[in-house]
Amino acid sequence: MSAPEVHVEADAGSLARAVAQRLVDQLVTAQAEHGAAGVVLTGGGIGTAVLREVAAVSAGRPELDWGRVDVWWGDERWVPAVDDDRNEKGAREALLDVVGVPADRVHAIPASDAGYDEPEDAADAYAAQLRAAGGGALPRIDVLLLGVGGEGHVASIFPHSPAVTDERPVVAVRDCPKPPPTRVSLGFGAITSAEEVWLLVSGEAKAEAVARALSGGETAATLPAAGAVGRRATRWLLDADAAGQL
Ligand SMILES: O=C(O)[C@H](O)[C@@H](O)[C@H](O)[C@H](O)COP(=O)(O)O
């Protein structure tokens, strides 16, 4: 487990650009060291803004081979594939279809119309997909991106919800306070297996959650963002408003 590092940019735009540069660098390094790179994407405003910037940055970085990047998701909304609420849809429009990530490298969490009756079945299927990619264990994830909610949720793990103690790598989540209410999410076992966890946070509404998460006084159950740590690095990438109570 790694101690958190904090990096602050002036505003949301410069944060998205800085994260995009850093992510492209990291994926290039991972490909040089391991042949392929693995990244977990997040939904949410700043997460999607980062993906748009990654598309722009990567246009000038031909050494990043998108044919050797495995793309996973930290969470997904249990809605049909064409629904605008799908994190996959936003990521495809912002980045994946722009840079042309091959279909067999894009590992989307199943949509509600993908053939699974319940989100629990989709969660089990996604866990099986992860294990297959990792040869029985979880695959190597170089960078796992997370947004943070004002009450401290990450992915679709909300404070005091059953997901905070669920040891399965992927869980179904019901009755989420943030709509839509039904989701599929990585659990902490999968999140903390990543080499690096990057928490992307923008805006004053998140400042208290950021300060509490970094205070050392919270647990994953009370403030899930406090439990989101990477093996090698945990980076809090903030704009000035989100860092306002540090
Ligand atoms: O799909 C989702 O809803 C998320 O993955 C969620 O965890 C999100 O990242 C945060 O709620 C932050 O979202 P914002 O940046 O839009 O506030």
UniProtKB/TrEMBL annotation:
Top-level taxon in the UniProt lineage: Bacteria
Pathways involved: Carbohydrate degradation; pentose phosphate pathway; D-ribulose 5-phosphate from D-glucose 6-phosphate (oxidative stage): step 2/3
InterPro entries found in the cross-reference section: 6-phosphogluconolactonase_DevB, 6PGL, Glc/Gal-6P_isomerase, NagB/RpiA_transferase-like
Catalyzed chemical reaction(s): 6-phospho-D-glucono-1,5-lactone + H2O = 6-phospho-D-gluconate + H(+)
Lipid biosynthesis is among the record's keywords: no
EC number in record: 3.1.1.31
Pfam annotation, one family: Glucosamine_iso
SUPFAM superfamilies to which the protein is assigned, alphabetical: NagB/RpiA/CoA transferase-like
Domain Glucosamine/galactosamine-6-phosphate isomerase: 11-233
Keywords: Hydrolase
Single GO molecular function: 6-phosphogluconolactonase activity
Keyword Nucleotidyltransferase in record: no
NCBIfam families attached to this UniProt entry: pgl
Function per UniProt: Hydrolysis of 6-phosphogluconolactone to 6-phosphogluconate.
PANTHER family cross-referenced by the UniProt entry: 6-PHOSPHOGLUCONOLACTONASE (PTHR11054:SF0)
Family named by the database record: Belongs to the glucosamine/galactosamine-6-phosphate isomerase family. 6-phosphogluconolactonase subfamily.
Name used for this protein in its record: 6-phosphogluconolactonase
Gene: pgl
